[in-house]
Fold this sequence. Notes:
The chain is mainly β. The protein is built from no helices and eleven strands.
Amino acid sequence: QVQLVESGGGLVQTGGSLRLSCAASGTIVSINNMGWYRRAPGKQRELVATITSSGSSYYGDSVKGRFSISRYNAKNTEYLQMNSLKPEETGVYYCNADVYGGIFYNYWGQGSQVTVSA
């Protein structure tokens, strides 16, 4: 069994910054792609950013130039640095990972609330 534990959410003013972390633990041989998604109130979940095991990253159009995804493979951890936050980015942020522990399986974190005040 694998768990993804998120941390770093909270309340920030418009234009502020937050850094989310997500640590994977359990039976892990390797982790392929990792990513961050978010769900704003009343909206569907959307992709924020993804990163491959070799460090190649992809960003949703709305966050390009402001958010940065990274990972530390030795600690099975990924990060999301969020700068210049906007009120419409308020929501629950979820980490995601393709974990190999004998077979590949996709896991989700429990979600971390990010609130950006106007």
